[in-house]
Amino acid sequence: MAQASLKAKHDQTDITWKTRFQEWWFRNRALIGFAFILPWFAGFIIFDAAPFIYNLYLSFTDYQIGTVGTPPWIGLENYTKIFTADKLFSKSMYNTVYYLGFSVPLRLIFAFLVALILNLRVRGMELYRTLFYVPSVVPLVAATVIFAGFLNTRYGFLNQFLVLIGAMPVRWLSSPDAIKPSLILLSLWGFGGQMIIFLAGLQSIPEDLYEAAAIDGGTGWHRLVYITVPLMTPTIFFNLLLGLIGGFQVFEQVFILIGTNGGPLQAGLVYMLHVYNKAFRDFEFGYSAALSVILFLIIFVLTLMVVYTSNRWVFYGDAQDDEI
Amino acid sequence: MIEDPRVKMFRYIIIYTVLTVGAIVMMVPLLWTVSTSLKTRDKITIRRLELIPDPVAWENYPYLFEARPILQYTRNTMIIVVASLFGAWVPCTLAGYAFARIPFPGRNIFFGILLATMMLPYVVRLIPLFLFFDEIGWTRTFGPLILPRVLGHNAFYIFLYRQFFRGIPEDIYDSARIDGCSEFGVWWRIFMPMSRPVLAAVSIFAFSFAWNDFLNPLIYLGSNKELWTLALGLNALQGFEGEDNSLNLIMVFSMLMIIPMLIVFYFGQKHLISGVTAQGSLKG
Fold first, then answer.
1. Which of A122, A289, B109, B172 has the largest count of CB atoms under 10 Å?
2. What is the pTM (predicted TM-score) of this model?
């Protein structure tokens, strides 16, 4: 009995302490919210906001390796030089747009078609899914050096195979005409990432839609065109956007495969390589910053354009749910 | 509507043919990698297609460890991986939790900023960050690679956590708070254990981005061989003794980078899709 009352007393003091603590927590809830996002916000200031603004400022200055103190302000000079005197600007821009013009749509189409097939219910599909996906797990650096060997003119697999079947070998990495196709080939090898996303999307399409179509006498083609494709447009659209943004920033593959000069006739000089060279080879930081700002504007406009036009051609399945 | 068995059979044959041819094409570069990694030095320069190595040069694997400081590269890479995982588990989940569950003033504005940074390409921050780290003497150290990761500077992870946490029913949160659990306690005792799928998915991303990172190690560690990561070491091997006659070692190195990734993805694949898409099913 005595023990019980002692315990009750103990609990009581414990509770009041707890309650006070709890009240304090509740009052300071907003503060806790801020505390929880503080590491991210500090990162945002240090790694996003400040560098972004400083980069913009740098692009109007003549900041080079020997510059001490405040870099001299030269207004739009970097930009006028880029658009009027820099041959490598248009060249690298052309190479980049060529690269992504092929690699992005081809990757999407491959990923979507293969996902459609892999979504069929036939035996052994798990194994096929794995085999198609494994190449996209390969680290980019490894994938690139593998391709450097695979496409090697004399000792690479592809040319040896072409010779075996009686075709002409190609100088994949040393002829200006073949460099960009080689880069596109490498990017196609990694379509598995998008394929998995499409596969997940396909599997989330409700079965009853297909059943309803079957009752109405719809063929496989009808199901594809009127159900699958419209329901998949948000996913396709999202992947297109990510693909374009990533494509403009293609760098590592090119750097490793053909070096910083961009290969023969600079046929592989992509935009990021030009930015990299200007900053880390020529140490013209101001000029390089201006180049990067142009790339940013392209990506920004692209993002806005796709987001803005998307509601005209993208079908969001949950649009009605939101209204209710 | 019963299908003619012959038509069905024909369809299966076409499906399996397409799949098998496709799978072979996809796997050929990897099979060639394995095969080349097991070839002797004089076999790699034969200009004829030979897929099965003869003799099988297993010694290439131990030899690479002698020829290159692989263990040092691995240790350096793991330092970045660990920083990345810490950031993904602690600061990112806390931020995701705050964005999902704690109403604080300006939350929507902060969240808008978070989303906007997802669209900010790295290239417009590259040069100022390099100049900044150069200024404070951090180039040629792990600092510039570790600091952003330890702070959880990744909007994508925070976004994924936030989406997942929003799917955890309000009742669970309320009853825990009524029982006197602090925000910190709710995060640690309830949300973290319930979020294994998304934690697994983000961990895979964090591991693979850190494992594969090339541009940052190149810029900050490129001139300090002591701190080279696996990716830098592999890239440097490419120019080792002229690229043709060390092709087998390059492929050994590639295999060393690929195998851990395969293991991570093998164990994590279940969660990868469910972690990223589960918010839909949990939301209810």
1. A289
2. 0.88
